């Protein structure tokens, strides 16, 4: 019997250039060459809208078997959004209260409004004290399972995004901010991960990309291959890349992802 295999892909930096659309030639490769050989899943920290934008439209849920947005807190299988039964998830690292949920779990319910507002107020206060080459708008994006925090603001242009990425590598703006948050909120139960060019995520511990693996356990895959670019400690691919349930593949960019797939499947 042939092995039942799934390939899971980070989106930004793995299937696409940062915040760009997937190259149509790579999309064709995935559909025509890879899809007949294995199941394909996408797992991103972004919400579904952003994943759909980068993957050529909302029919992405029809073109790929599994779409795990917001690390799997929202997920689609075979074109339909699936319900989350927390009793069926065995590998969450923390659950302060045991409860049954149909639909989507959310961060405000898990953390509580009081703690959440204190955290957000501190973030806004911290951002008001730092000086950057430019600042734009949308510094905190509230998602279902996380807060996405951008010191420069998500409304920056692509040119400003690229320039901030270089500046951040020199000045460690995001790293320093994460350290400040850890010091201020040592018991809030958040994990922080840097992803993309301009932001980082704050989410309940256990709600990283390994969350999506809980949905795959009943599927009976023999091998789960994960491809991602931010696999270093503190990157948003680190936990799933190092999880014992996956075979991790570190990639440099979409072209490298295709090269590794060609080698893995002898294409």
Automatic annotation (TrEMBL):
Where are the catalytic residues? 10 (nucleophile), 12 (proton donor/acceptor)
User: Is Cytoplasm found in the keyword set?
Assistant: yes
Alphabetized UniProt keyword annotations: Cytoplasm, Isomerase, Magnesium, Metal-binding
Q: Which cofactor does it need?
A: Mg(2+)
Task: Provide the catalytic activity annotation.
Answer: alpha-D-mannose 1-phosphate = D-mannose 6-phosphate
Question: One MF term in GO for this entry?
Answer: phosphomannomutase activity
Asked if the keyword RNA-binding belongs to this entry, the reply reads: no
EC number(s) from the headed UniProt entry: 5.4.2.8
Annotated residues that bind Mg(2+) are located at 10, 12, 229, 241, 243, 246
What the record says about family reads: Belongs to the eukaryotic PMM family.
Functional note: Involved in the synthesis of the GDP-mannose and dolichol-phosphate-mannose required for a number of critical mannosyl transfer reactions.
**What is the protein's given name?**
Phosphomannomutase
Species the sequence originates in: Sitophilus oryzae
The opening ranks of the lineage are:
Eukaryota, Metazoa, Ecdysozoa, Arthropoda, Hexapoda
């Amino acid at each position: 019997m042939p092995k039942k295999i799934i390939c899971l892909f980070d989106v930004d930096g793995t299937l696409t250039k940062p915040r760009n659309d997937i190259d149509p030639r790579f999309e064709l490769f995935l559909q025509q060459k890879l899809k007949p050989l294995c199941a394909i899943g996408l797992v991103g920290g972004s919400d579904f809208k952003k994943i759909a934008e980068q993957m050529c439209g909302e029919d992405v849920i029809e073109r790929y078997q599994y779409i795990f947005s917001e690390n799997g807190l929202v997920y689609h299988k075979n074109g339909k959004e699936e319900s989350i039964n927390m009793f069926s998830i065995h590998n969450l690292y923390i659950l302060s209260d045991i409860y049954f949920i149909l639909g989507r779990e959310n961060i405000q319910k898990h953390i509580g409004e009081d703690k959440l507002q204190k955290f957000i107020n501190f973030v806004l206060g911290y951002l008001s004290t730092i000086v950057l080459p430019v600042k734009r708008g949308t510094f905190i994006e509230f998602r279902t399972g996380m807060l996405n925090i951008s010191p420069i603001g998500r409304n920056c242009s692509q040119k400003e995004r690229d320039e901030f990425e270089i500046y951040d590598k020199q000045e460690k703006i995001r790293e320093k901010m994460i350290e400040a948050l850890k010091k201020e909120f040592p018991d809030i139960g958040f994990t922080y991960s840097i992803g993309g060019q301009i932001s980082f995520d704050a989410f309940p511990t256990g709600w990283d990309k390994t969350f999506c693996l809980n949905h795959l356990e009943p599927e009976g895959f023999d091998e789960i291959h994960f491809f991602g670019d931010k696999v270093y400690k503190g990157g948003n691919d680190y936990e799933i890349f190092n999880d014992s349930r996956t075979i991790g593949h570190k990639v440099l960019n979409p072209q490298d992802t295709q090269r590794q797939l060609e080698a893995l499947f002898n294409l």
